[in-house]
Amino acid sequence: MSGLSFAAPLALLGLLALPAIWWLLKATPPRPVTRLFPPLALIVRPKRDEETPVRTPWWLIALRLLVAGLIVLAVAGPILQPTERIVRGEGPLWLVIDNGASAAPDWPERRATAAAILAETGDAGRPVLLVATADGPDGIGAQTTAAEAVRRVNALAPRAILPDRAPLLPALTRLAGETPPGEVIVLPEPGDNGTAHDFLSGLARLAGTAPVTLAVSGRPAPVAIDGVEQDGAAVTVHLRRAAAGAATDGGLRLLDRKGRLLDERPFALAAGDDQADARFELPLEIRNDIARAEVANGNSALGVHLLDDRWRRRSVAIVTSTGSEAARPLIAPEYFLEKALAPFAEVTVSGQGALSDAFKAAIEARPAAILVSDVGRLGQGEAALARAFMERGGVLVRFAGPRLAASDETEVPSPLRRGDRALGGSLSWSRPQALGSFSDNGPYAGLAVPGDVTVNRQVLAEPGVDLADRTWASLSDGTPLVTAARVGAGWLVLFHVTADTRWSNLPISGAFVEMLRRTVALGSAGAGARDVGGNAVLPPLSLLDGYGRPAAPAAGVTGIREADIATITPSRSTPPGLYGSDDGFRALNPLRPDMAYAPPDLSGLPDGVRRAGLVTEAAVDLSPFGFGLAFLLLVADGLAVTALAGGFKRRRAAAAAVMIGLAVLLTPPVARAADDARLLEALSATRLAYVETGIADLDETSRAGLSTLSRFIASHSSLEPGEPMAVDPERDELSVFPLIYWPIDASAPMPSTAAMARVEAFMKDGGTVLFDSRDDADFSAASPNTARLRDMLATIDVPPLEPVPSDHVLTKSFYLLGAFVGRTEGSPLWVEAPDDDSGDDAGEVRPVRAADGVSPLLITGNDMAGAWAADEAGAFLNPLVPGSPRQRELAFRAGLNIVMYVLTGSYKADQVHVPALLERLGE
């Protein structure tokens, strides 16, 4: 609902003067008409050509009253509020903003709502206390002015967690005791972890009689991912939404660690369902590369699930008993197992020495699965180790044989009959059995039953009530071929035949490879993953921001013990991301299946708590329109008076001049003054420029980065650049800048075709654009930012590109450099590749080419502005990844080399510089 408010409502008292104005206008006679009479005209009554009215016409009085009323209204500062007015109280305003992950999709609307609230509060001169709930107690600021609160709101960004609001109430209670709030406005996010109701109830109690308003978004909470599993043949992504509602759909993406897209599938949540699964059937090689699952265009960390190195290619250990098989390696059981496991696992064989030593060695290697071929009864020590291994999530796979058949082993899924069953021998009573079926509730479900697999001998399981539930594969006569039982977080699996071909031809069939693949995939990565530190603290490696984008660890983030990584709740000090090092890391995700995720419970709140919506449009100041309309009506008044006095008949030229002047006034002026001033400012000094993306924090990083780089250049060279300027490629003049820095963000609006055409013309005329995808990815990768950059460049004619060669002039334009690093250092710098065939045919459309040896475009993913950015005090704004001692210095040197290369061309490639360069190299 729209509303009209006034910045200076007391000015409306001027409307009381309208009756007095009407009386004055009515009593004042019109302007007299002057006539010249000849002397004899005194005897004769002059003939009147025109009648002068005795009183001013009523419509002219009404016009003048309207002008006066419009001026009064314009002075009062009318403001059109597109939505219902939120601010209603007096005194100190408490503005509480949920800045968790579920607020990220509509964060611009939340920021606009906060800005509108603070603008109205600032007009009233009220103090403001700003609270950001996801920042914890540190998010409670001091009471300040509305203008300062606006600056802080602009610096706020959603975090990749659901806020824990409980620690905020004690601090707010103390503040309410010192200065009670005059009004409380809360912007709750649509996803909650169960803390919203108690927090809002506590706020209402602290407010007392002061009004409390909840500005609630109409958008539902984003679809979240709370788990990813694989069953040996496919990857299953588990989706969850905060509440069951209408049917919705979307897309899911699987990416590797460099951001390359591996697969993308649609998903659908039916009406009334709050959970759904999406299944990706992929080859193992691709499944091993998965590092991230995400909801496409979700714009929230809740729609991202990270996978660590526990997901990758499994490590499998084979334990055999020593015997005559060692002398016959090509028919030994471990030979068949190694061949079947080789396509999808890293295999180690432990079979030298005593069985206990081999088994202990296999356990200590921390594999995901251990395969035991024809070992009889496990000793007490081996059985304890095996059970502890399975309880941690490992899979113990046993194969039958003469030793197991002759033992009374108890470490099997189901009790076994003593001895074995021979089929098809000279004394047998039946023929060899074929493979019959796979259980629908086991990992082999869906596998085609091969018709050529036969079994000559097997160990039999004792019949029992749970035998059918533990059977994964059966022979054609219904007897079990593979049985399994859950042990802790892992599995105990028994193949009732040998691992070689003595009892069956299963080990040489294709089905055996797929059965082992699916069995090993059940092994928890925790049982066989690389040891990253045990109880040691894992430092943050790469984190998620509130939008689900990778981010460098910020100040205040602490490490996590590996033992706690599976149970710890993400917080501001331990946000979701990867913890450890490149040699071994663990993933902490925003949401787990055991974590609450629901809409905030707003029931049971006090009756005085009011609800409103978010501001979707900015408030409109109507004062300029009021003054403009009043001016036009005054012009119309003047024309009317002139017409009544007959002025147009005697002064046609003057009337024409008035009409021309009125036409000029009514014609929209071309906004050249501001553009000319901006152009003169750009020409007053050599300046770097950056493209405004519309993302406040990204644009501020670009501005601060180029500003700091300009100061670095001034202190290390004779060039003294001016302050950098922001540009809009579609509107601003680009040719006055030698270098334009363009940070890429997939969430920013796609540049128009006209904007890219102007950029292409700028590069053809000798300018250079530095595109930075900021994702630490190669330009050939498929990260969201790099994909957006490719889409942008697809609209223009781009020359062939290559990573900067070691002898390129960029590597020696000022400093001698071997790499061009930024906040990260994993991405190369791409430049135009040399073209030996420069003789283009006349009239042929040419791509942008290097002018004076300068590449028209440079591409990196190392977030260079992020490394350069510093505040006015010189404190750098962003940490570096990995943060080597000289990384920031090398980033500044890379920036200086790029600027010098753009300004001077390829002169450093001339042979006259060779002696100086060799001297600097010490050669």
Task: Give the strand content.
Answer: 15-25%
Largest sheet: 9 strands, mixed
Helix content: 25-40%
Radius of gyration: 39 Å
Please identify which CATH superfamily of the largest domain we are dealing with.
Domain of unknown function DUF4159
Overall morphology: elongated
The total of helices stands at: 23
Strand order of the largest sheet: 15-14-16-17-24-23-22-19-20
CATH topology of the largest domain: Rossmann fold
User: What class, by secondary structure content?
Assistant: alpha/beta
Mean pLDDT: 82
Protein name: RNA-binding protein
Transmembrane segments: 6-25, 58-80, 625-646, 653-671
InterPro entries: Aerotolerance_reg_N, Double_TM_dom, DUF4159
Domain Aerotolerance regulator N-terminal: 4-78
Write up this protein.
Helix 2 packs antiparallel against helix 14 (about 625-645), helix 3 (about 105-125) packs antiparallel against helix 4 and helix 5 packs parallel to helix 6. The protein is an alpha/beta fold. It folds into 4 domains: about 95-220 and about 600-615, von Willebrand factor, type A domain (Rossmann fold, 3-Layer(aba) Sandwich), CATH 3.40.50.410; about 245-305 and about 535-590, no CATH class; about 315-520, Rossmann fold (3-Layer(aba) Sandwich), CATH 3.40.50; about 675-835 and about 845-915, Domain of unknown function DUF4159 (Rossmann fold, 3-Layer(aba) Sandwich), CATH 3.40.50. The protein is elongated, with a radius of gyration of 39 Å. The longest helix has 22 residues, at about 625-645. Strands 15-14-16-17-24-23-22-19-20 form a 9-stranded mixed beta sheet, sandwiched between helices. It holds the Pfam family BatA. This is RNA-binding protein. Keywords: Membrane, Transmembrane, Transmembrane helix. InterPro entries: Aerotolerance_reg_N (IPR024163), Double_TM_dom (IPR011933), DUF4159 (IPR025297).
